[in-house]
Prior knowledge:
This protein is mainly α.
Amino acid sequence: xxxxxxxxxxxxxxxxxxxxxxxxxxxxxxxxxxxxxxxxxxxxxxxxxxxxxxxxxxxxxxxxxxxxxxxxxxxxxxxxxxxxxxxxxxxxxxxxxxxxxxxxxxxxxxxxxxxxxxxxxxxxxxxxxxxxxxxxxxxxxxxxxxxxxxxxxxxxxxxxxxxxxxxxxxxxxxxxxxxxxxxxxxxxxxxxxxxxxxxxxxxxxxxxxxxxxxxxxxxxxxxxxxxxxxxxxxxxxxxxxxxxxxxxxxx
Length: 251
């Protein structure tokens, strides 16, 4: 607990900011753009540095500024017009309580892992359903599949229904598990990072799927193939659900 207590004391010192109704939406958008920026830079560098192209999953396709700007504008619009009213209602009905003590490190790591596994399962079922029911796909999910070759900013390029429903899954799991607020913050950061990495379009030497053994984690190659082929690899992170349901395709 001692190693996390200093971190938690630093966070608690910003209590007025954290308890503000504006914090969740600013935190979400800032973290999202911060995680996207390295990949945006890489997209532009790859055009000028051929040695970097070996890391591009689909090297024949690169996003242009004209493709990126609409994604940024849509994300800003969704955060301001849709996500903020929802987080404001949540702030009004469920005020945040900041405990004095930080969580113990094993408890924090376990809770973050369980939240990720739950989100992965919920996303898999939601995703599979929206591909198997034509009306759901055309009405809600087709927007996200506009780009066959993904890039970081396509992570949140989606319909209102998709953004809110997946945001609900991410928000409800820490509540159900009664996670510490610091655990919630770390889970949200990890979840945003992994989502951006999934859509980055790059298979880098330090990518998460290379750090997890036995092919348990699919990562960017796994999800990129879903956008390319449409009919496989529905789970966002791990590979076990696709293998169990027969929807797994080797990337």
